[in-house]
Amino acid sequence: MSQASTRSVLLGVFICVSVALAGCGPGGGGAAGDVEDLCDGIECGPNEQCDDDTGQCTPTDDQAEGEDDGAGEGEDEGEDEGESECTGEDCDQLTGGEPILRDFELPVPLFAADSAWNQRADEAEVLPESNGQILVLYRVLLGDSRTIYPEEYGLNFPFMSINYDAWSYPVFRAGAGQQEVLIRDYEGALSWPGPKFDDADLGGPITIPAPVGTVRAAGPADVFSDGHLVLYDVENGVEYDFWQATTTLDEAGNSPGGAQPGTSILEAGAADFFDVTGPGVNPEGVSSARASGPPLLSGILLPEDVERGAFEHALALAIPGPRNVSDDPSEPLETDYFYPTSTTETDYYNTDPLALASGQRIRLKSSIVDEEGNPIDESELAPITRMFIAALRNYGAYPIDAAGGFVFYAEDIHTANLRLSDDEINELIGEAAGSPLPAGKTKWQIVIEKLNEESELGVIPLASGPWWEYAPGGLDPATATYGVANFEVIENALEPEE
Q: In DSSP terms, which residues pair with 273 in a beta bridge?
């Protein structure tokens, strides 16, 4: 396969997808499925089909041509008002149905000023082992699975991508009422509630605020989904986080998995809560709705960031297998995770001593190159991409989860409400003022998909080198070397003084 065709097939497909494991929440890490399996578990809406190359729902040929979809009327109305948003039939491209855009704002940047999530990284020292750690990650991203446990992954893609639909984080309003939630995952296994909840019984139930209106856990629509969901208490500034949230049950009383709309959270595989004015960390050894312990809202791209004109916080990163070299992986060593994480992956990990550990910091270098080592002219990148890479330089990123790629997170497009005009959106994505926005997509979807384009994040690899030569059947990725690294591993964040 040529370099161009390899990139075309693989760009954007390495999202956290569970195959035989429990997912990317507590107790497990997900892996990218083979390319031909990307549409497994994806339920598309009317007049659309799943794209085998990307795993995203796209209009059928008739729908794409605008036949009988009412797109013309919607666009005319949007142009008259200077605003447009995805509603009704125009939202068919979303996996799992129409958006439930939130009607409240989050107080960004979240968490305390001295939290790891808000500490600047631009002057932090580079670690002596940085080159070796980047090489280990580079080889894994090219398919080196010698020290990856337990799955072998057919990776061959050293570029960044953003999860924004399946495997992302929807955010809903918490109400004044209360409800009970059974702590049971999608496979029916009961777990102990976290230490923050008073209930000590296996499976709970725990008492949480009831949501306002319809909620929907993140997709895909199957029991292998992470099914993340956030309830946000606006009055008290508290987020309630859930992994494998169940919003409806089938006739047999079993969970159908993620991406199901409902009016309450009936069950969850794990739950936690955080004050968003606090440090954004958990006590030592405690996991959360993420296996490594941080809040779900920590480090994700939010519409409020874009409205402010900058991501003024560190970013959450997922990689194939954070480090765990313990003889008993269920009891990770303290040297295998660092603040702001409080533990690490115990079911999907890397046993190489030089693998990146949960909570380590990486930073984008001040000058970057493409896959062939040529300097990248950043002025040619869209403003939203320049905003993203500025965050990677100023605040860095923390590996906090496992995924089948080099993955960052944005709020789920089903709930993210980007309150900008059409012309402001066009400016962000590098289009001329007055250009019609794509039909059938929310503004947040348009912006994040621009970030994911081959001409944007798709030109910035972890490091330069002929990665395409290590595709299955090619060179052994365990022997790969790189030319110039775009990222470096830097000293850890400082824990606030008590």
A: 240
**What is the DSSP-derived secondary structure letter of residue 358?**
B
Which DSSP symbol is given to 444? H
> Which value, in Å, is the radius of gyration of the alpha carbons in the chain?
21
Give the list of residues 6+ apart from residue 358 with CB closer than 8 angstroms, or none. Answer: 292, 322, 323, 336, 337, 338, 341, 343, 344, 345, 398, 399, 400
CA 249 to chain centre: 26
- Describe the crossing of helices 422-429 and 383-394 by its angle, rounded to 10 degrees: 70
SS3 313: coil
Residue 379: per-residue pLDDT: 98
State pLDDT tens for residues 397-416.
999 999 999 999 999 999 99
For residue 271, give the H/E element and its range.
Answer: strand 270-275
Among 169, 283, 186, which Cα is nearest to 231's?
169
Residue type (1 letter), 390: A
| Token pair in block for residue 424 | 């402001």
Adjacency order of strands within the sheet including 406-409:
160-163, 406-409, 315-319, 397-402, 361-364, 487-490
Q: Answer yes or no: are the C-beta atoms of 318 and 24 closer than 8 Å.
A: yes
Distance CA 27, CA 58 (A): 33
On the CB side of 417, how many CA atoms lie within 13 Å of its CA?
14
Give the 3-state secondary structure of residue 274.
Answer: strand
Rounded CA-CA distance 472/483 in Å is 21
Residue 411 CA: distances (Å) to CA of 133, 227, 298, 326, 457: 29, 13, 11, 33, 18
pLDDT, one tens digit per residue, over 187-210 is: 999 999 999 998 679 999 999 999
For residue 160, give the nearest of 333, 392, 372 by alpha carbon: 392
Q: How far is CA 454 from the centre of its chain?
A: 18
Nearest C-alpha neighbor of 45 from the set 55, 66, 60: 60
Reported as a single tens digit per residue, the pLDDT across 412-433 is 999 999 999 999 999 999 999 9
pLDDT at position 73:
33
User: Quick check: 334 pLDDT over 90?
Assistant: yes
Strands (E), 314-409: 315-319, 349-350, 361-364, 397-402, 406-409
Q: Is the peptide bond before 220 cis (omega within 30 degrees of 0)?
A: yes
Every domain of the chain and the residues it spans: 3-91, 116-162+300-490, 171-275
User: Would you state the structure tokens that stand for residue 345, as one six-digit string?
Assistant: 């992956």
Which DSSP string corresponds to 223-234? TTS---EEEEET
pTM, to two decimals: 0.85
Long-range (24+ apart) CB contacts under 8 A made by 101-106 are 101/415, 101/416, 101/417, 101/442, 102/171, 102/172, 102/173, 102/415, 102/416, 102/417, 103/173, 103/417, 104/173, 104/232, 104/234, 105/304, 106/171, 106/232, 106/276, 106/297, 106/302, 106/304
